[in-house]
Structures are given as structure tokens and as C-alpha cells.
Amino acid sequence: SNASITPADCDTIETDAGVALDLVNRHRRDGYVFGLFRVVDAYKQHIGNSSVLYLTLDVLETDCSVLSGRRWESCEYSNVFGQCKIVTYTSQWIKKTQQLYGFNCTVSPVPPDVIECEDCPVKVEVLEVTEQHKDIAAKALEKYNSESNHTSHFNVDKVEKILK
After folding, report:
1. What is the pTM of this model?
2. Whether residue 19 is found in the same domain as residue 53
């Protein structure tokens, strides 16, 4: 039929997957930018003059906050692993640009003993964020506000991650 689903072209899919992941990162309001690790699955469906792309991507969290607006290529990878299922839509009429139709990403938290400091024998532990941690962050920022000569003051919006 006209709307049959076929495996996507391997030569172009890496680029398309990167663009799709940028769209997802721009859409997210908290967490860290996901970087492309590999394309697991990719299918394309042609419907009239448009096409729909179904992607399953293995991703790695980077050290850039999604609020930084940075593209994943410019960020350092962490070792938090995840997977994103993404559906994008490309109309032949609108400059052939991909548009985000929907996505679902899940990440697997890293067990405490997995993260190791590269140049030293210290184990790093990822802690659960508590109210106490939020207070510590707020106090640290308060101190920064009082000592800096910025005209704006900063507030803690969210504590994303705590390493011990």
C-alpha cells in the first residue's frame, strides 16, 4: 500500500536521528541533554507527500542541562544510559524539515559503585535529592548572590543531581 512502513536508509539515518534527538532535547524542560549512542531501529512510512520516521535510539546523558539549549554534539557524555523512542514527521512542502510528533525516553540510573573518578581510586555515589540538599543549594546561591556584582539575583529552580 501507499502507506507501507519500510526500514529506513542506513546512510542517512544517523543524520536524521541526530536531528530528531535535538528536537527532543529542545522540547524537554528538565534533566540533561541526551546524546546519540546508536540507532537501534529506524522505520520510515510514506504517506502522500509526507513521511513519518519511527526511531529507537540508545542514548547517553551528557553533562549539559537541557535548559542550556546546547546541541548534544557539544556536550561531554556521562555514564547514564537510556533509550528514546521518537516519531518525527517530514512534510515535502515545508522545506523538508523534521518536526517532532512524539517521544518517550527512559533512563537507567547508574548504581552507586559504577561511577569512578578517572584519575583516583575514589568511588562516587549518586544521592537521592532531599529537601536538605535543596536548602544547601539555596544557601550556596544566596552566598553567591551576595558576593557577586551581578545586577540580577539567581534562584535555585531545581536540584538535578547530587554526587558524593
Report:
1. 0.71
2. yes
